[in-house]
Amino acid sequence: MFKKKPNIKPLSPIRSSDRRKIADQIIADYTLELPTVEVAEAGSDEQANTTAVGLGALRNSLLPDNSLSARFTTTAGPNLKQVSGTIYAGAHPGEDQRILWLKIEDRLYPTGYQLLTFIATVYTLWHNPGLVPLLHTPEVVLRKLRGGADLMTPGLARGPPFPSKATKDAIVAIASLEDATVPMVVGVCEIDVSALQQVQGSKGHAVRGVHWAGDEIWAWSTSGKPGGKAPDHIGGWDTEEETSNLDKEMETLHTEDPEEGLDDDQDDGGVALNNPSEQTHNEYVDGEDALPYEKVDVEDKELSTKGEDHFLQAGSFLLTVVD
Predict the structure, then answer these.
(1) Beta carbons of 69 and 14 less than 8 angstroms apart
(2) In 106-155, which residue ranges form alpha helices assigned H by DSSP?
(3) What is the pLDDT of residues 85-119, one digit of tens each?
(4) How far apart are CA 96 and CA 111, in angstroms?
(5) By three-state DSSP, how is residue 115 classified?
(6) Most buried residue among 200, 215, 278, 300 by CB atoms closer than 10 A?
(7) Which of 229, 231, 209, 228 is closest to 220 using CA atoms?
(8) Which string of b and e fits 228-242 if b means at least 16 CB within 10 Å?
(9) Rounded to two decimals, what is the model's pTM?
């Protein structure tokens, strides 16, 4: 949606009372818990003060003091549908001012029993682990998502099981297997990902991309500086369950014969490499930047060393595209 620069009107300061209301709405919509703070005795004044401090800290983490807002317009989809809404920009301590939230008009994103109107950007996710369900995909697929492609069901990794809140129309984040704690894409589930029993052999879209590190929302800055660098690791996204799933997946990668899954008649969701002309669509991504019949080679210089290791163990991927 934001591959091309949106038209953003002049920014205006958000009044303190409005900022608190917006933050409280986000807390309610995302069913967030207040930060855990030790208190003296239940019912004491100190407990009440601590609760207020915890709420204030959470508000500031979501939407810092002195935040600004502005209206924007852009286009989306192959038909270039007109989209409008509001951006909310702010600066976390020691950082540049960035767009932290998006509010798109006439589009409610239901998650469970909630209706979400505010969409977090990667900058907000980097400061608020666990805010949305986190899905994973190989780095080579993530690169396509960061070019505007949508994630197809076979591109999902580290599951099943998948996060229970990754239901149809839920807002989710996507990270690579190689940097599993750093969300790089924000999207909306096109299906109930949490209910998937397997992804091998599955077809169709899983997540529609809305925003990613590298788009014009990420690049926006009042100072003219380039977009912010992603952290190397974010504690809080690597829960015990996610770590367990990753360990199982890595064990599979280490024990699996790299030559398996390359046969023409395989039915486990791998991509046959012997005759790419028979591949009629991209199993992993769909979008304008997913190039046709692109073979991802382990010697691709753009891949990180960690990414090379994974693909040397797991075999090569073949990506194809629906034009």
Answers:
(1) yes
(2) 122-127, 139-145
(3) 999 999 999 899 999 999 987 554 444 444 467 99
(4) 31
(5) strand
(6) 215
(7) 228
(8) bebeeebeebeeeeb
(9) 0.73
